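Lecture notes, unit on protein representations.

Consider one protein chain, 135 amino acids long.
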Amino acid sequence: MKNKYSFLVVIALVFIVSNSSIAQNSSWAVPEYTKGIKNPFAGNSSATKEGKEIYEQMCVLCHGLTGKGNGEAGLSLDQKPANFLYIKDIPYETDGEIFWKLTVGKPPMSSYDELLTEDQRWKLVNYIRELNKKK
């Protein structure tokens, strides 16, 4: 009987880990021109701090407080929100590519083009980079 429970726990863990990594591995192609778009707030620590505040207001429900993709609203989604600590592409993406993703969105994530100003989205790019560094 104990072996059955151990087996079920192992299967459940495999399912949970593989399911959460699917959201991280799905490709999200961006237009080539986005690679050259420069972040007007790159390296600006006060903009990054403002990005954290924006994140805590707009993103934490799905992506979680620490960016692991485990926010309360995100748990109910079929496609889980990105785990910013796990995404290996972030260090290789330009700020312009991340900005474009925030602007356009990809279901279930909505576009933030009309919800956030351009400056707010750039500041959010800074904070997402900070989250990815906390691996």
